[in-house]
Design goal:
By secondary structure, the chain is α/β, with parallel strands linked by helices. The chain contains 9 helices and 13 strands. Helices cover 39% and strands 20% of the residues. A hairpin with a 2-residue loop joins strand 6 and strand 7. The longest helix is centred in the middle third of the chain and has 15 residues.
């Protein structure tokens, strides 16, 4: 699904370096997006009070707030996709960034071509995350049912046994989709990485564990003692619950 002709998706550019911010905004304009420069956390808060951008590009080194803390605050209030852009290349920073809900992480220096690909992938996977109530309430036509839950692949929606929508990040949704599709079969971290993150950076295999923890907190009655998403030590994970496949065909 793409925006209607003439409608540009806005992207918040949270970057305090004027030269870098100008470069990113010029690049986004050329790619057909509407950049919204936010040199500090305060400007991002003001932007989010008035509109919901399609995506946030977030630098971690901000003058008025730690970038990871800002990402956590944005994720707690919004389901806007977040791509972290930073010079912090340590594995712990990457894992923490993804653990708090970022959808991708790109270390400087990066190529603008790769950034464009990452943006397109995240936006493509986030399409349908927010739907009108009339659409969201339609019957499940393609997806999975498990333990009273409904996973709608077409509308990218997860509903709990009480009928409440449960918000998932792009990464969480794609990971759960992969586990449900392979229910009963063990998938390695590498396989899950390829199926959910398009194979970016081998170091990201560790982040599958982070996404698993986040999913367990949302769907397991007792995340400390899971019974749906099970760990196969030194191998990977599998979905152990009974799964009903719903097909539009």
């Amino acid at each position: 699904m793409t925006p209607a002709a003439g409608i540009r998706q806005s992207i918040a550019v949270v970057e305090d370096d004027p030269a870098q911010a100008a470069l990113l905004c010029e690049f986004l304009e050329a790619e057909g997006y509407l950049p919204r420069p936010c040199p500090r956390a305060r400007e991002l808060a003001e932007l989010l009070a008035g509109e919901t951008p399609a995506l946030v590009l977030l630098d971690l080194g901000l003058p008025d707030e730690d970038g990871l803390a800002l990402a956590a605050r944005v994720r707690a209030l919004h389901q806007i996709p977040i791509i972290i852009l930073t010079g912090r290349g340590s594995e712990i920073d990457r894992v923490v960034g993804l653990e708090i809900g970022a959808d991708d992480y790109l270390v400087k220096p990066y190529s603008l071509r790769e950034l464009a690909a990452r943006i397109r992938a995240v936006l493509r996977r986030s399409t349908g995350a927010a739907l009108p109530a009339a659409v969201a309430g339609q019957p499940l036509r393609e997806g999975f049912r498990f333990d009273g839950w409904a996973f709608d692949k077409l509308r990218r929606r997860l509903t709990d046994p009480k009928g409440n929508a449960v918000e998932l990040t792009v990464g969480e949704f794609d990971l759960l989709a992969a586990l449900l599709a392979a229910h009963g079969r063990v998938l390695s971290r590498g396989q899950l990485l390829d199926m959910t993150r398009r194979g970016h950076d081998a170091v990201y295999e560790r982040t599958i564990d982070v996404l698993i923890l986040r999913l367990r907190r949302k769907i397991e009655p007792d995340p400390a003692h899971p019974r749906l998403i099970m760990t196969e030590r030194a191998i990977g994970y599998h979905f152990a619950g009974a799964v009903e496949v719903v097909s539009a065909g």
